[in-house]
UniProtKB/TrEMBL annotation:
Organism of this sequence: Rhynchospora pubera
One term of GO molecular function: nucleic acid binding
Protein name (database record): Mitochondrial transcription termination factor family protein
Similarity remark: Belongs to the mTERF family.
Highest rank taxon of the organism: Eukaryota
Keyword terms, alphabetized: Transcription, Transcription regulation, Transcription termination, Transit peptide
Amino acid sequence: MSSFLAKRILLFSSSSSPLHHHHFHHLVLLTRHSLSTQSQQSKELPFIAQYLISSFAFSFDRALKCSADSHLRAIKSSERPESVVAFLKATGLSHDQIKAVVSFHPLILAYNVEKTLKPKVRELMDAGFSRELLVQLIRYNPTSLLSKDTLSRLLFWRDFVGGNEVILLNIVRKNGLLVVYDIDNHVVPRINLLKEYGLSNQDIARVLANGYSCCMSRRLETYKHILDFIEGAGIPRDSGMFLVCFKAIGAFSKDTIEQKMEFFKMTYGWSQDDVYSAFKKFPYILSMSMDKVKSNMNFLTREAKLEPRSIVSWPHLLGYSLQKRLVPRHHVLNILCSNGFKKNVNLWSACILTEKRFIEKYIEPYKEDVPGLAEAYFATCGSNTPV
């Protein structure tokens, strides 16, 4: 506000009009009041709130809320927070990473570097954990630096992945809260349940490394319902598809899965066996948003003239981008068909191809016979890329 008022003062001060002089005097008083108010607010703010605003771009309201914490409010100078920032930087965190850590957990600025941070980092490094892993651990779970169990839990996960530092790094990066969970009472029962359904340590590690943190966070009963559903759909525990299906729907509750199944039955006339059949071909059909399913299904049934039941055989069509794949490729097939080419091709066979292969098969051979085909395709895709 003060910047705006200053500009107005310069504008009015250059005029000799009496009316302008009146406004000029009013603006000067208003600006003085604004600056005085801001100065007063700044003086009333606890030091840590001012520090969070100036150093980490916190909003006024959030900084004020953070300062209500007794540990943060006790900070009266920049000495401790600056020592924390310097330590994090020396550990290997970038400016943006430090900013993200403070935004996620402002209380870290109250940690004692010599008594808390340095000993914990030294303990982990002495155990053979890399600096890169520590950076990721602090970045995604700074509270781990306070827990006495962090080392033992990281050692468990390192053994679990066979000492593979790359896999462990990915798991920590994608599942920052993993070291929060008690190993004996929380982690082991979930691992044992997944193993009962045929998942190996390698499978579970792969799930975690892909960011499926729900693998360790959800209730055992919820897991069992999902695993039973996958098996009930006719997918053997020892098949590779079982893991794919778990990745697809492992984050959902039994009720959510049943609601999605009911949606296909009531809206498109699918039977339960139809849903199971589509799920086995394309497990993500039960994890997609129903809005996406509706928009794709509307296009496929109204524009492409497919029967809803026929899509059970090609459920991947519901997962493709409507604007980037379904509409442009259907448009090309229509143009080719109207010019006497490719009369018996179906949309599915055109959509499963990569972009490069689609162009080679459906556009390049017909560029001379069907002028403008490539332009029409890329225009429909929303791209000006020439072929």
